[in-house]
Amino acid sequence: MAGVAVVVIDVQEAFFSGPDGSYRGAEVIDGINRLTAAARAGGAPVFIVQHDEEGDPEVEYGTAGWQLPASLVRAEGDILVRKSVGDSFHETPLKAELDRLGIERLLICGYATEYCVNTSARRAALLGYQTTVVSDIHTTQHTSALTPEQIVAHYNHVWEHSSLAGNRIAVRPLADVLATEFA
What pTM was estimated for this model as a whole? Predict the structure, then answer.
């Protein structure tokens, strides 16, 4: 599928395992696997973004927490991107790779809704990409007064009703994305 790419953000052991693992983590990974399988079958590139911070034992490059969960399907042609801040574009090769491949539309999913997914989706829209956040395959942990379920619902609402320089972020469920993007 020319012109579209999937960007999977921060699906890593540190965020998806243990007693404080992500809300609906297994369901989210299953949905991501369905999306990326459809994308690969349709010829669309898959970008897997991993957060790493030097000196942070939870996600320092190469640590157990930095690794991708065994349940996340990764294919040989997937493009790995390392980042050290919430924005998947900041000082990474993501934009250059997207542009090199002629990508105009992004399907974004992953972790953490209110941080890395939000920042990356907004940046993508500001850079001019037609950006869709897949509403049921992004997640977070319990880290604030709001529950993870409330955070996911809140950001789906915010993205759907915000305009960034006239470029809206679309919010669509996985079933709709699969039926329209890769049918």
Answer: 0.96
